[in-house]
Structure to design on (628 residues):
């Protein structure tokens, strides 16, 4: 019997008991759906993190001071000494905080970073209008500011360059607007404000530098630079706690590792669910065989061989599994969509994973259908025909 | 030894030749001898009725004759081939090609239409879809059900269902038709129609073996064989 004929026969049987089929596929459906949703969410988060890391660039290293004992930040001179090594193209110290920005009668709260001119180049920030900070701004402690596009729109500034805004009550002249960078896990990236490092006392009431962004000349130098930085910072802090040195390569690897572990866990959950679903299929197929004993007897009397009966029931079992897989994928996609809407986070369903899950659901149907199918094939036609 | 010889022993090889067929079952601790040394010869074109009460072994005989079951001992030649010790797969092939079954309670698949029911033997023969649908339709028309191709068994009367079953038995053009109490579930009028049809098919050259307990049904056949306690005795049409 050809496959097409078998599929038609199986579909007829499956359609005859719609509720029963639905309940049977539930186990497989849930397994596939959960894999689809969870992987989509996982992929979404992973990709987001990766994108953020990518935007840092492979040459970027970030030094963060957390603080230990009395040492809570570094001075500009300490940083200069720290960064004195081969392989570093540029570095930008940053003092960060939250400020209130006012223009006219509109105001908003925004994250502010007081930094140097190299910052834009190090972190790949492009200007939409105007210019970024210059060294001379810093030298003269000019009260100038660069804002993100969201700040401009929130404050109703159509042509911000040259306008004055009040940052923490201090007037600053806007010299440029950044290009949009979009949103990420941390929220919007377009609502930032940048001012020269030397003005930090005025708006943030502190000159404590806690972050330095470093651009390394070549990606190959990164491990060396990171090592030397770690060494020097350990000396400064008397230990390895109190600071951290990020580099994109390591972060990418960590993200990759976490992602891998997560996927393995999901596979485990899905596997358990599929086994449960498979047992459900086997159960129902056994019932089906018992119910259709007479039918099997008739078919055998008409010339159906054992393998014809085996084939018929295997196709049916695989079809039930496959239906569960398809419904599971649909349910999973729906669930992922709902989640990404509700949490405002991206979800990326993976076609490869969905295809694999579907394949597994077919396989589960087949494997768990073998026993009932063999039982059907082995029925004695004389006995089978006697059944009601 | 019990011998049943055909009235018109033809020079062609017989369709059915059984020699010393025995069938024994074990039921718990008891051994049941269902068939006790059957010798039977059926030629092509014969119309044989096998008559006997329940428990006489007539069902067992039909099962062996129809290759649904294998004898414990003896020899069975069907259409010239020894089918006594064949394996499951080969028996299935023989059932598909050589034998058309007609059962007392029709044994149609309830979820398939008349057309689809009649197609079934051809599906197991591997015939392509177009060809087998045509054949099935043709045979259904022949038994007078051309306008009910798409009816489900539940939408047909008893007589019509039996005719579908007969069509199904005929569709593969088997040399032998085996009917087990074909009118058992039908009223008198419909029984007559079905038996008329069987006689007509026999007139066209089909060999028919019919099992029944009803002497009136048996009378329709050309030859009657009695079975009692697993042994045969020719009743009518025996060479003297």
């Amino acid at each position: 019997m050809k496959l097409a004929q078998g599929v038609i026969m199986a579909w007829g049987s499956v359609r005859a008991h719609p509720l029963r089929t639905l309940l049977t596929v539930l186990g497989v459906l849930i397994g596939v759906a959960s894999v689809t949703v969870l992987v989509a969410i996982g992929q979404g988060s992973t990709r987001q993190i990766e994108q953020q890391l990518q935007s840092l660039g492979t040459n970027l290293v970030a030094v963060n001071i957390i603080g230990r004992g009395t040492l809570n930040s570094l001075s500009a001179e300490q940083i200069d000494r720290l960064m004195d090594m081969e392989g570093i193209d540029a570095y930008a110290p940053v003092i960060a905080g939250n400020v209130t920005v006012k223009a006219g009668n509109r105001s908003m709260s925004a994250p502010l970073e007081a930094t140097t001119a190299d910052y834009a180049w190090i972190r790949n920030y492009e200007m939409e209008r105007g210019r970024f900070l210059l060294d001379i701004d810093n030298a003269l402690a000019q009260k100038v500011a660069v804002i993100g596009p969201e700040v401009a729109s929130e404050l109703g500034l159509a042509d911000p360059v040259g306008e004055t805004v009040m940052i923490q009550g201090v007037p600053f002249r806007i010299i440029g607007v950044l290009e949009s960078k979009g949103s990420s896990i941390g929220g919007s990236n377009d609502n930032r404000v940048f001012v020269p490092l030397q003005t930090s006392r005025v708006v943030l009431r502190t000159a404590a530098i806690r972050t330095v962004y470093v651009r390394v000349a070549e990606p190959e130098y990164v491990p060396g630079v990171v090592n030397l930085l770690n060494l020097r910072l350990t000396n400064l802090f008397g230990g390895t706690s109190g600071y951290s040195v990020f580099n994109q390569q390591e972060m990418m690897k960590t993200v990759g590792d976490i992602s891998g572990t997560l996927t393995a866990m999901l596979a485990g959950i899905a596997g358990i669910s599929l086994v449960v679903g498979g047992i459900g299929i086997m159960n129902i197929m056994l019932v089906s065989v018992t119910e259709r004993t007479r039918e099997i007897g008739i078919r055998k009397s008409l010339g159906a061989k054992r393998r014809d009966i085996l084939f018929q029931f295997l196709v049916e079992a695989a079809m039930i599994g496959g239906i569960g897989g398809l419904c599971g994928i649909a349910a999973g996609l729906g669930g992922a969509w709902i989640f990404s809407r509700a949490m405002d986070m991206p979800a990326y369903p993976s076609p490869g994973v969905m295809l694999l899950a579907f394949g597994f659901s077919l396989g589960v149907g087949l494997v768990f259908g073998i026993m009932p199918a063999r039982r059907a094939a082995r029925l004695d036609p004389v006995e089978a025909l006697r059944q009601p | 030894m019990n011998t049943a010889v055909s009235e018109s022993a033809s020079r062609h090889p017989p369709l059915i030749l059984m020699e010393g067929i025995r069938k024994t079952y074990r039921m718990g601790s008891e051994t049941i001898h269902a068939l006790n040394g059957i010798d039977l010869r059926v030629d092509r074109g014969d119309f044989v009725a096998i008559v006997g009460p329940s428990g006489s072994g007539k069902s067992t005989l039909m099962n062996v004759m129809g290759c649904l079951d294998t004898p414990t001992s003896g020899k069975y030649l069907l259409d010239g081939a020894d089918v006594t010790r064949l394996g499951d797969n080969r028996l299935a092939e023989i059932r598909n090609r050589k034998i058309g079954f007609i059962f007392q309670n029709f044994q149609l698949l309830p979820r398939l239409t008349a057309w689809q029911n009649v197609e079934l033997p051809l599906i197991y023969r591997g015939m392509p879809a177009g060809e087998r649908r045509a054949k099935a339709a043709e045979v259904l028309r022949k038994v007078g059900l051309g306008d009910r191709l798409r009816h489900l068994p539940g939408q047909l009367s008893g007589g019509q269902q039996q005719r579908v079953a007969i069509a199904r038995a005929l569709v593969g053009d088997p040399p032998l038709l085996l009917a087990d109490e074909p009118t058992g579930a039908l009223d008198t009028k419909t029984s007559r129609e079905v038996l008329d049809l069987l006689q007509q098919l026999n007139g066209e050259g089909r060999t028919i073996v019919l099992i029944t307990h009803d002497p009136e049904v048996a009378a329709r056949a050309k030859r009657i064989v009695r079975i009692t306690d697993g042994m045969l005795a020719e009743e009518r049409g025996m060479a003297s």
